[in-house]
User: Which sequence fits this backbone?
């Protein structure tokens, strides 16, 4: 079965950094694009970033460009999101999603990032 | 990358049909086939229910159908059931290698 398990969330001060991980299993990880999507408390979904299978291309939402970096380790079947210069408005549950059908045909359970002093 | 506009809430009685709209202010939807819809229960991860405008993944009920006309996509839930209560999100490729979600719609079964 396809499984995506996020980790690395937590409480961080404004201006701080955090690295999220998404461990994938049950499919050929290197064959799929992967996305990060976030959801602030009580709000809708917001696309954050995506990376292709061999990490040769990636893209970002304007709101995180220059602060967040998406990467992957296909040997470890793991997706990452490095988040720097964090702001209060980055507070959200962060989901990783497999880019099979639609933007994401399988999603992880999410990891909560709280940016607060 | 403005969010796509969805009604905040839609409600219906069991057995009825409801339709959720998803409208772009620009040509986000008009030029692309990559429109998808997601169902989300409180505290849970989203689940894909429609992709490529009107295709259902394996295992998704045929009570869910969708379409697109110009800058507006629509999701219809037929034969409304209590288990359909939750949040629904549309999503579209927005060009320049970016994606945009809708504002989300809360479906209530009366």
Assistant:
């Amino acid at each position: 079965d396809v499984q995506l398990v996020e980790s690395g969330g937590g409480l961080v001060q404004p201006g701080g950094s955090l690295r999220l991980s998404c461990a994938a299993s049950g499919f050929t990880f290197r064959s799929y694009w992967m996305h990060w999507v976030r959801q602030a408390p009580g709000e809708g979904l917001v696309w954050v970033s995506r990376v292709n299978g061999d990490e040769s291309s990636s893209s970002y939402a304007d709101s995180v460009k220059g602060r967040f970096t998406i990467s992957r380790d296909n040997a470890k079947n793991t997706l990452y999101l490095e988040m720097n210069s964090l702001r209060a408005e980055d507070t959200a549950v962060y989901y990783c999603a497999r880019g099979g059908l639609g933007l994401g045909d399988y999603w992880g359970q999410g990891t909560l990032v709280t940016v607060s002093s | 990358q403005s969010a796509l506009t969805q009604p905040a809430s839609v409600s219906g009685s069991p057995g009825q049909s409801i339709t959720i709209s998803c409208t772009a202010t620009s040509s986000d939807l008009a030029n692309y086939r990559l429109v998808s819809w997601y169902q989300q229960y409180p505290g849970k991860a989203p689940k894909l229910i429609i992709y490529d405008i009107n295709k259902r993944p394996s295992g998704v009920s045929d009570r869910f159908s969708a379409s697109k006309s110009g800058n507006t996509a629509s999701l219809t839930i037929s034969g409304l059931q209590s288990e359909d209560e939750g949040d629904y999100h549309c999503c579209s490729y927005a060009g320049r290698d970016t994606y945009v979600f809708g504002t989300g719609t809360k479906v209530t079964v009366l």
The radius of gyration of chain A is 13 Å. The mean pLDDT of chain A is 97.
